[in-house]
Write a structure and sequence with these properties.
Blueprint (H helix, E strand, L loop, with lengths): L8 H11 L8 E3 L12 E6 L2 E6 L5 H6 L3 E6 L11 H15 L8 E3 L14 E4 L5 E3 L11 E4 L2 E3 L13 E5 L5 E5 L4 H5 L8 E3 L5
Length: about 210
């Protein structure tokens, strides 16, 4: 996808984690949300429960690593003949991802094990991670942590759960479980992001019901 939240690896880490399950085991993901490009942030390869990830170790793989059982990290050592200071997605990460996809057994030619690698992960619990073209507001909240009696509060308004848009009247605001398995804030036939003034990174409050 080309419209991951700009300059925000923490929000993108939740988005990435919600997408990988639909892909075949062994898939290599080239992931570049890299506001620190050219700095001393570590270029890495990550293996997590059957999937491979190539990109910067800046928090982008933090949620994947946190939710996986078998996690291994490598620091990329392979370098191209020409490495720009501002375009590592093209010059470094894309070639490494391609080489890895062709021959995972030869990973030692690309990187060295990094046993002490720890993902940089900012606390993004209950935050806005993505806003689509319709103004639906995707959050980092996993609906399995909620009950249908719980509410999500946005800018002082408490939103009830609904199964789908057609269960609500036009203009009604609600939260639901989206197709990626995340809690999403929506407004039937309207833009929830415009109504609430939401931006990526905004905090969202969960109101637990007594019964839950």
């Amino acid at each position: 996808m080309a419209d991951a939240p700009s300059f925000n690896p923490y929000a993108s880490s939740h988005l990435l984690a919600s997408l990988v399950a639909d892909f075949a085991e062994g898939m290599v993901f080239l992931c570049v949300v890299d506001p620190g490009v050219g700095s001393d942030r570590e270029p890495c390869i990550v293996y997590a429960d059957g999937y491979w990830f190539v990109g910067p170790n800046n928090g982008l793989f933090g949620v994947i690593a946190e939710r996986s059982n078998d996690v291994r990290w490598w620091r990329i050592t392979w370098m191209p003949e020409r490495l720009s200071s501002t375009f590592h997605g093209r010059d470094l990460f894309a070639p490494v991802a391609a080489k890895l996809a062709l021959d995972k057994a030869n990973i030692d030619a690309l990187a060295e094990p990094s046993v002490d690698a720890k993902p940089v992960l900012e606390n993004m619990a209950s935050s806005v991670i993505y806003i689509d073209d319709f103004g639906n507001v995707m959050t980092s909240i996993l609906p399995k942590s909620l009950s249908t009696n719980d509410q999500i509060e946005v800018n002082g308004e408490r939103l009830p759960y609904a199964n789908t848009f057609s269960d609500c009247r036009p203009g009604q605001r609600f939260w639901y479980c989206n197709s990626q398995g995340l809690a999403e804030i929506a407004m039937n036939q309207g833009s929830a992001s415009e109504y609430f003034g939401c931006r990526v990174g905004d905090r969202i409050i969960v109101i637990k019901s007594i019964s839950s």
